[in-house]
Write a structure and sequence with these properties.
Blueprint: E1 9-12, E2 19-22, E3 34-39, E4 42-48, E5 54-60, E6 66-69, E7 81-86, E8 89-95, E9 101-106, E10 113-115
Length: about 120
């Protein structure tokens, strides 16, 4: 944590050993990354970029963090949580702003999260 940026995602430069701040929220402070789960070669987590609310993000070993999808479109937060991986699918709870909180699944081959529709 760095006071100027709040709670952010950090990594270590493998060549210099120096810490690198992967600042996701440049606007209003902290992105508060949470719910870290590994699937394949990616680390999935929830974070807030200051524009789209708290949404699903991922980072690959050589890349900058990327938002996977703005599930609760616009500035609303889907608050993805309860991450678990079963048979190479990432399952989590999220609120799309329309149907409420429900279970979602993400197949890393398609890269698109989908609600599982268990609430109708």
């Amino acid at each position: 944590m760095e006071e100027a940026n709040g709670t952010e995602l950090w990594t270590i430069d493998p060549y210099s050993g120096s810490p690198i701040n992967l600042n996701i929220n440049y606007h209003s402070g902290a992105s508060n990354p949470d719910n870290f789960t590994v699937l394949g070669n990616s680390l999935y987590f929830s974070a807030n970029d200051g524009y789209t609310g708290t949404e699903l993000w991922k980072i690959d070993h050589n890349a900058y963090p990327q938002q996977v999808e703005d599930i609760n479109w616009g500035s609303g937060s889907s608050n993805p949580h309860n991450f678990t991986v079963v048979d190479n699918i990432l399952y989590f709870s999220a609120d799309d702003g329309i149907s409420g909180t429900q279970m979602w699944g993400l197949d890393p081959n398609t890269g698109t999260p989908n609600p599982l529709g268990i609430y109708g």
